[in-house]
Amino acid sequence: MTPMTTEAAKATASAGSAKRALVGRLSWGLADQAASSMSNFVVGISVARSLGVTAFGVFSLAWVTYGVVLNVSRGLATDPLVVRFSGVPEASWRGAVARSTGTALGVGAVLGAVCLLVGLGLGGRVGPAFACLGVMLPGLLLQDAWRFSFFSAGAGRKAFVNDLVWGVALVPAMVVAARVGSVAAFVLAWGASGAAAAAYGCLQSGIRPRMTGARGWLREQRDLGYRYLVENVSLSGASQLRAYGLGAIAGVGAVGAVRGAELLLGPFLAVLMGLSLVTVPEAARVLRQAPHRLGSFCLLLGGGQAVAALLWGGALLPVPNRLGELVLGDVWQSASQLIVPLTLGVAGAGLGTGAAAGLRALGAARRSLRCQLFASACYVGGGLGGAAVAGTAGSAWGVAAATVSSSAVWWLQLRSALREHNQNPIPEVRTS
Directed axis angle between helix 126-152 and helix 156-180, to 10°? Predict the structure, then answer.
């Protein structure tokens, strides 16, 4: 065998090994999100079947509030970690994770206290749910931080096991909550099982979160963290504003109908979110190893998700009413009417996710922030404008149109960012 042939064989073997490693990391991302989404699906179905559409709407308001707080934590704590500490030496990773998870825990403590006070002040049906959410937020945010920490190290199996622990702990908690029969009980059951998984994450990693390191972490990562904070909060805040506005315009039951339709799309959304756990680290690896392939990687990622969303939504259309009512109870009738617009919206979001991963990998926080602010404004405007014109269905169609339009903006910004990077490449990965 000639030296040239030997080198070619080594290159082929190396490429094959890299592809297998990529498939393995993506597979663990999907498995992890499947476990996480199954837990969320069980909670949603339990509340919908046990308490009815109005109580399910109250639970959904608490859920979207949790989503806002979660995105605050991700923007400040774990998004910079994933961008700058994916694939770095272990010593650097462990130090960064200790400070990142400490930041997440601190965010949960501060915003949890705010949520608790707001809930106690509100009273009525909504207040107790928000108060219980406030108590549970530190553990919930820490558990999410462990997931992203593990994926930044390429250890998706540990994230999967952690979410599996949450799912196992959730079973007896849901049984108790169903016997109590209140929204607050379900929030406590969901949060307590998540806190148990957060504690287990400390054992898995051998790392103790350092809340005292939060200030230093925020200072070091401020160039990305604060932009990601605004970007993430605008995303989840838009969802919250749409939910509150829809409740005010069409009633709390309309919020429950939208959440019910989202549950029907749950298995695909699990795939979408599972991929999102690993797309930024993988895009960062592609950028370091083969920067000329980043655009095609993002296009394949986004296009694949959009096609998969359309296929899943099409499969839901012929579901008989009897089966739908078996799953969602009284929520089915109103939720089933929203399948088509929600499917189109998710397809648009999936397409845009590919471009968003590329912008994150490039560290183009200013561009991604610009895109997200535009997308959030369209989301709120389309959702509430549609609700004012045609109720719940109008809101769903307005969101679908806004999401598809926003996807085009994400791709235009990625194209510009790639052009700038090719002219003046700036590495974003840190090792200290």
Answer: 160
